Amino acid sequence: METMALGVLVLLATFIVIIVSLSLIGWAGHLKNEKSSDFL
User: Fold this and answer.
1) What does pTM read for this prediction?
2) Which letter does DSSP use for residue 20 in this model?
3) In angstroms, how far is CA 29 from the centroid of its own chain?
């Protein structure tokens, strides 16, 4: 049971890390687009 719970926790942690990194990349890209449009 403990190993199964640990596996679930690892899966959840990986899932959260992927979502956070994706949202950060999208946010950075959005800021970059806004800045470039401001310069134009």
Assistant:
1) 0.62
2) H
3) 13
Token digits for 30? Answer: 């959005």
1: DSSP letter: -
Among the residues of the chain, which ranges form H helices?
2-39
C-alpha dihedral over 6, 8, 9, 14, to 10 degrees?
130
Residues composing the chain: 40
pLDDT by residue (tens digit) across 11-40?
999 999 999 999 999 988 888 877 766 655
* Token output for 18: 């992927």
